[in-house]
Amino acid sequence: MSAFNSPPFVLATLGYYSPPADGGKPYQKGVVDPSTGIRSLERNWFPIDVPGIAIENARGREHEVSLDKTGFAFFHHVSKHTSFENEDNVKTAYYLESAELLKKLTGANRVEIFDHTVRKSNLGPGVENLIYGPVSMVHIDQSNDASVARVHLHMPAADVPKLLSKRFQIINLWRPIHHTALDYPLALCDSRSVDPTDIVPVKLIFPDRVGELLSVKHSEKHKWWYLRGMTPDDIVLIKCYDSVQDGSVAVATPHTAFYDPTAPDGAIPRESIELRALVFYD
Fold first, then answer.
1. Which residues form a coiled coil (predicted)?
2. Is the whole model's pTM more than 0.90, yes or no?
3. Which tens digit of pLDDT belongs to each residue from 156-182?
């Protein structure tokens, strides 16, 4: 079965929020072993697997979703940048190309890409590599407070008041690299199907600051999508925050990697890159 000749949906298991056993507030902290440089994740809560989640295949139905309607959008874009091993090259050539692309696709007048992650999967079903591999946990990258803090952290102090006085967003740009992503694809939840009571803030503890992501409790109302067989020429924009919160547009989109039981045997382990960008409008 090809990526483009595929069923309209897949049934999969997704990792949803489960509260800490000790009743405390959830947190997670990145830890680096100073003797080895190996990174690990310390946290007081763990996702719970919820099986049988229907994930709609958007292939051929891309027009049914959009950043302001569902909180995410799929596009075709051939990047001039094809090598992602060199960090400096990614932060110059690929950042510049992607910032211009985001302006074109959103109508924004200013875009600041503040970080990126290259992910590689060589793990089996149900196994999660929390640092280097696909993240099999339903989440939104930033809370409201963390999104505003990102503006203060990454933009010139003199510009911040004006930037915060107008509409701004945090948008991730995600694409596979090197080959088609049939292994551990990305699922995206229609923002309209998420109730505010489903959202749980989780403290992110860094050596120099404290951030906050949003985890998500399971609900039968959630409507999930993915684009089967995304190639390096397919991208998805994921809205993680929007300062417009009057109900007229999607504010944020829960998303997660998932094990696709219909992926062909021997599918090449997924490789992908995601950029996180501050997106500003006049």
1. none
2. yes
3. 999 999 999 999 999 999 999 999 999
